[in-house]
Design a protein that fits this description.
The chain is built from two helices and 23 strands. With 356 residues, the chain is mainly beta. It folds into two domains: 100 residues, no CATH class; 220 residues, Beta Barrel (Porin), CATH 2.40.160. A hairpin with a 3-residue loop joins strand 3 and strand 4.
């Protein structure tokens, strides 16, 4: 009697698990059991107990029904709720309140389980310390001979977007960057220092239905010893656009104006208004190799003929999940430096990076 009762309990639990299991049927006849994570860029991410997390093209699926309510994000910022399914013919549809609505795969940006969407709370605001991504790099070189030299390079870049769910158009984007190059050379008792520091804090506010246009405000602080530049403070803003925005490639342009206060070691102080014109490229090649390039041009609006530009190019190659190898090139140009200094400062750095 007791064994029969245990058997019934086992059968009940077993059949309950099977009833809750999500099944995907593929065109080649295979069946996959697991849990639906989300649909993005035409691919379903499916967690299986034996094969781990799989990314399956939705075009290869002939049958699937989400066991719970999902949130469907459509182009143009529209949103629909219901039960998502792929029929035997491969057609997509959404069932809600006893009404079945066909879905065009070209109009679907992403699909998330309602629990996941609600937990992320994409309409709400996050705390300032949440959801940052980025990394830092450190490099050091030491030489001791008739000429002693030391060089240290530190870089840090981070980004925070709201909302953070993939497929949703961005609302806010905050970026912070920090680059330091410290170098000393001693020969015949004479020591020469060439230190450079650049720090940028920027906030983007996206506007428009497709959220490709944005207003931005930024502050930048520079110290360039090779140009006898003690501190340059820049505060400004303008408008920009993500001309191309794909998961693996983004190309942005921007323009605006800023107030600049520059102090030199000679005691000279410059207060100017500058224009801002720039572009930025973020590219992920071969799924792992990250390439970043920025170019910003600042023509003076108050001193005719004066201008400066900054360009930063960085290549990041992952070693492990959190470690990478970095190569960076930073070029800073000033058309009217103080007498006796160079107009151009070029810094090449390499080192190990930590990503988060």
């Amino acid at each position: 009697m007791r064994s029969s009762t245990l058997g019934l309990i086992f059968m009940f639990v077993f059949t309950s698990v099977l009833a809750k299991a999500e099944v995907i049927q593929l065109k080649n006849g295979d069946h996959l059991n697991g849990t639906f994570q989300h649909l993005l860029n035409g691919n379903i991410v499916f967690q299986t107990p034996n094969l781990g997390t799989l990314t399956i093209p939705a075009a290869d699926i002939t049958s699937f029904t989400s066991p719970t309510t999902v949130v469907v994000l459509l182009k143009g910022g529209k949103r629909e709720d219901g039960t998502f399914s792929v029929t035997g013919s491969g057609a997509w549809q959404l069932q809600s309140n006893n009404t079945t609505t066909p879905l065009s795969p070209r109009d679907v940006v992403a699909i998330y389980p309602s629990e996941v969407y609600t937990k992320e709370n994409p309409e709400g605001h996050r705390s300032l310390w949440q959801d940052w991504t980025g990394g830092g790099a450190l490099g050091y070189a030491l030489q001791q001979s008739s000429q002693n030299s030391r060089s240290l390079s530190i870089s840090f870049a981070s980004k925070r977007e709201e909302p953070r769910l993939e497929g949703l158009p961005p609302r806010l984007r905050t970026t912070f960057g920090f680059n330091l190059a410290y170098a000393t050379v001693t020969q015949s008792g004479v020591t020469t220092r060439a230190n450079t520091l650049t720090s940028v804090l920027r906030q983007d506010f996206f506007i428009g239905g497709d959220a490709r246009n944005y207003l931005f405000a930024q502050g930048q602080w520079d110290h360039v010893a090779a140009q006898q530049l003690n501190l340059r403070q820049s505060y400004g803003g303008g408008i920009g656009r993500d001309v191309i925005r794909h998961p693996a490639f983004t190309f942005s342009i921007q323009g605006g104006a800023s107030y600049v206060r520059t102090g030199f070691e000679t005691g000279e102080l410059r207060n100017e208004m500058e224009g801002i014109a720039g572009e930025k490229i973020v590219w992920t090649a071969l799924k792992h190799l990250n390439f970043n390039h920025e170019f910003d041009f600042y023509p003076s609006l108050t001193s005719g003929g004066d201008y400066r530009f900054n360009t930063l190019t960085a290549l990041d190659a992952p070693i492990s999940k959190h470690l990478s190898f970095n190569i960076g090139v930073n070029d800073q140009f000033l058309s009217r430096p103080v007498p006796g200094t160079q107009r151009n400062v070029l810094i090449l750095s390499t080192g190990l990076g930590v990503n988060f």
